Sequence to fold (291 residues):
Amino acid sequence: MSPLTKILVVFVTVMSVLLVALVVPYVAQTEDYASQITTHKSEAAAAKVSARVAEQEKSAALEGNSKESALLNQRVTALTKEMNQLREQAAQASSNVLQGERKLAQLEAELSRLSAAAVQDANLLTITTTDLKETRQQLVDSQTKLVQLGDRNNELESQRDSLNRQVRRIGEQMVSLEQDNISLRDSLAKVPPQFRSDLSTGDTAQTPIESNVAIAGTITVVENSAGTQLVQVDVGSKDGVQENMKFLVHRNESYVGTFVVDRVESAIAAGRMTLSNGQVVAGDQVYTGPY
Fold:
């Protein structure tokens, strides 16, 4: 065997050893790489699934956050509006406080004025009280005199009413006497002189009566019939009026005439004027009874 061959064999042997030394780790490492690749692929697939789930969760979270953000924005808007309202209320309250302070200052000034006036009033009250004590007895005396004057006034009014009735009665008697005198003169003038001494006076007519109690009323109707005045009054049998009862007719304090009742009902009475000192009209007062 030539040296070249020997060298070639040795070279091949060395190369084979080196190649085996290199191939074995390479194969082993290649298998390890394949295992790692498979593992990495599995991890990548799991990572993709996790990423997809995470993306879904992220989308859901974003959607929830969007809704919550919208609600928060609405809440912020409402709170902003409420805050603006509160600011306006605060401004109004501040204005009210200023007005209240001005009013308080005015009231304090008024209180000071009233306090000064109260002091003056207290002094005046002291003086007035003294004067009141002095005039109280005078007032009592005046009241006593006033009562006495009132009693005297009532007494005088009663006397005046009685005198007025007497005046009206006297007026009636005067008118009656005058009319009787005229009638007698006319009758006497018609009688021959030789028979005048034989005349006797008398009255066959029924004498009118007067009430035992005072009855007062008002004429409501006046009519003229055959030269005689007929009147109606607002008092009747329930008031004590009777037929042939005589009433004096007066207007205020003046005697107007006399009428005698011919017809009586419960609440009204009617009669004829027997004496007249003037024209009788509705509204004239009538009276009968004691003075």
